[in-house]
Amino acid sequence: MAKTPSDHLLYSLEELVPYDFEKFKFKLQNTSLEKEHPRIPRGQLQTARPVKLATLLLSHYGEKYAMQLTLQILKAINQHLLAEELQRAIGPGRPQDEAVCPLCHAQEGDPVGGTCVHDSCSCSVASRDPKASGGCLPKCLRCQVSLSRKSSGSLEQREGLQMASLSPQALPQCKRHMKQVQLLFCEDHGEPICLICSLSQEHRGHQVRPIEEAALEYKKQIQKQLEHLKELKKSGEEQRSQGNKNTSNYLKQTEIQKQRVRYQLEQLCQFLEQQERLFVAWLEELGQTIGQVRETYDTQVSRDIALLNKLIEELEAKQCLPEWELMQDIGVTLHRARTVTVPEPWATPLEVKEKIHLLHQKSEFVEKSMKHFSETLRSEMETFNAGSTHQSRERLRCLGGIGLYPSRGIKVLSTGVLVFPGCGDQGRFSRLSGNAQDFPPSSPFLCSSRTDSRSGTCC
What we know:
α2 packs across α4. Helix content is 56%, strand content 5%. It is mainly alpha-helical. It has helices spanning 5-14, 18-30, 42-47, 50-76, 80-90, 130-133, 155-164, 195-198, 211-319, 323-326, 330-339, 350-386, 389-400; strands spanning 99-100, 148-149, 184-186, 191-193, 208-210, 403-405, 410-412, 418-419. Mean pLDDT is 71; it is low at 93-169, 399-418 and 420-459. The protein folds into 3 domains: 5-164, Orthogonal Bundle (Death Domain, Fas), CATH 1.10.533.10; 172-226, Classic Zinc Finger (Double Stranded RNA Binding Domain, 2-Layer Sandwich), CATH 3.30.160.60; 251-438, no CATH class.
């Protein structure tokens, strides 16, 4: 089944590599159209694939004008091979009596080809006005090249036509061979050469091919590398995004830990102030008890001393009396002197002894505990300066669990209670009290287990 012009149009669009296909759509969007033809909406054009684009061309411009427009744009983006194939597929070719501009392929009388689509020429085929052209042959209005007939064109003109189809700008000439255009590409040297250079001894045996073919292949390689670089860029952006996400998470965790540690330290300060008040109150109570005992003892001793003073005064007065007065009631007086009680020596009450002993125990325990806690905390904080990553991770992990300094034996329970080494699993620091069993478990200061009265340590 013979292919229709629409099939050839679709084939030409599908043969374009992605980069050239995007160039085709860009040129189509910016190409001047005839007044009666509407322009394809930009949104539909940008997202269109070859099949969709072919449908849009046919529906907006009709088959004939769509073919002409496609040929025009294929030439504009240097896809001359596809343009020639499409031209051969849809018709017998240009009439032999039409003039052709060798630089821009513009034909006289061609409504599409008559407008140059190259940036360097952009000409319209001029009339044969002798005043404008300077001769009987027509000239290109923009490039002022004399137009010739295809039937009378020489081999040089046809070669120039092929040369002009490779680039919108003037092709570079060979520096060794003047007036020779570099139409070939040496793969071994990686440089454009002319036909004479390809036959020279320098390039003999080298892989030489048309520069347009080489450029097409290198365009594909460039496209491949572009896709590869874009993938690398995308991967880098994803990694950067993931890195930003991770660092944001770390900053958030750091802020949470900072607030948590600050809160714990504030709670610890409040707790220490509370324990200080309790300790001072307990000491004041002990001082009052000792003062009361001393006052009672002083009262008793003072009463005994006053009685002794009275007897002493009476006996001294008896010594000064005459004999007959001295002998009156002498027996009673001597009996009172003999039977007077001696003031009792000072004896510390048992209650006071127990409280003083407990004071020494608790004071010593508090001193040791605070010293141990201070040394442990200072040692743990020095790990930040030491830069030990592993130890720092272990310390941070312990902050979030049930332990604060496991390497030192100090634990922090979920309730904030500090447990020092030697206190056992049930040992906790509680506020000072006369009875260790009455210590509340929420006071992380003194051990709630019973204390050895001899060593002052927790049992």
